[in-house]
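Input record (Table S2, row 443):
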Amino acid sequence: MAQFDTILHPDFVVPIVPRYEVLPAHSVGIKGDTISAVLPRAEALELEASEHVDLAGCVLMPGLINSHCHAAMSLLRGYADDLPLMTWLQRYIWPTERQFISSEFVLAGSELAIADLILGGTTTLVDHYFFPEVTAEACERAGLRALLTFPVIDVTTAWARDTEECISRGLALRDRYRNHDHIEIGFGPHSTYQVSEETLARVAVLAEELDAPIQIHLHETDDEVLSVVEQSGMRPVDLLEKLGVLGPRTQCVHMTALGEQDMDTIATHGAHVVHCPRSNLKLGTGVCAVQKLLDRGINVALGTDGAASNNRLNMISELQTAALIGKTAHGDPKAVDAWTTLEMATLSGARALGRAADLGSVEIGKLADLIALDLSGVQHLPLYDLASSLVYGTSGSEVKWSWVAGRCVLRDGQLQSVDYTEVTERASDWSDQLAAFRTTLEQ
Ligand SMILES: [Zn+2]
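Output record (zinc ion complex):
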């Protein structure tokens, strides 16, 4: 038997750990689902492997972790644009979801998203949407690693009548995937304005008992903060602190409307922030003060949010935006530098998941979640600084290869586990009905 299943031979390896390291002419050996060697190419070429993959012109790095998405909302990409958050939600998104949400809708939207995510270099998806069992199965088939945070929301939906049913269905799903190697189930209380205090407190207790992650939309707009203050007398972050929701398992998404005190509270509890810069910019909800959070030692991961408010699910484009907007927000070109955003899209995502020991970098013993980007085009030459090229010079289409737990899911630009034609045809069938319904909303 060969010593390795696969040995990858890129021009460069960017392992992320240690920071700033670039390994020229190095190769990475995979055995089973694990990275089992990182060594000079000349030595690697002598080793026995079932497959040697020539990645000339490519840089190999850890797969990207998209820490916040609503995959099924891909069917609503470009559906209602250039609107304030609450108008967008109340006039278009929520009525459309009430009309159409079903397991079929979620299947079509999730598979469209999964194809898009893999093509853009995502190897781990953190999702939050109705019918998470359907998205879980789609991720399982495609071989995409995923944390599905099941919705907990005080609204009757096609998926669950009330928060009670959300929790019971979610827990049953968590049970089903208890020992799964790449699917995990966590809690997704929507927000402090869509979930009662009693339910939030219950989620905190259950998550603690089960050692399960919690993801929540938080401090997205000044209006949200104001309305929670009017209702409860507390800022959303303080309310979560009081209810026991804040902790190292908690991922706070957006955090655009933040005061200094809010940041201190997040830091005190070791909660994580998930930054979604393109969604925030498109909805005009503000800019997360990423550098200030990092300066406090808060872990900041990166997500695309759903395609309806982005419109892309491309993590390369997301990290580029995070770097550019981070400097403007901080008034300092040194803020949110290229290496910081590469880490946000990889190791920081792994930290938010509590998986930094086995994900987020190219290190021996970690899971073989890897991507290769082709940087041989003229737009990347000369290659003085790889981090600069990866962050500021990419268009998002450079990702050519992807492996999740050693399984190749993208091979020289071709999806290996998703039927591209089937996915696109199904999405286009849905778009006809959705477009017709949208016309009724505009009347
Ligand atoms: Zn969201």
